[in-house]
Amino acid sequence: MSHAEPAEYPRPNATVIAAxxxxxxRFACLGIAPDQAxxxxxxVTQSLIxxxxxxxxxxxxxxxxxxxxxxxxxxxxWHDFGAVTIRGETVFWKIDLYEAGSDxxxxxxxxxxxxxxxxxxxxxxxxxx
Length: 129
Hints:
This protein is α+β, with helices and mostly antiparallel strands and 129 residues long. The chain has one domain. It is built from 3 helices and 4 strands, in the order αβααβββ. It has a 4-stranded mixed β-sheet. A hairpin with a 2-residue loop joins strand 2 and strand 3. The radius of gyration is 17 Å and the shape is elongated. The chain starts with 13 loop residues before the first helix and ends with a strand.
């Protein structure tokens, strides 16, 4: 009896995903327009808002400027998570990739294709994790 070989699916291109994630993060946080359209939204948690007095603005700007990616904090090379310190508080950010048009129910099938991928950048206090 022969066994069918498992289907081979192409691995997403981590370099392309990282570039798109960086471009989206810079656009969402710093207003720097990307070279191509990248769909997504920016979300901040309630505890970040409750920190008050410009804290959200500082956290958003620091998230947009973040560029310290290393194997320890970015093992997949997707640039989809980071941590910044604002006024002594650790703030996390993460980017989740969804299939466009799925109402954020399904992960992106081709996360390296910006036409079919919707990004959600969430900025939160570390304690929200």
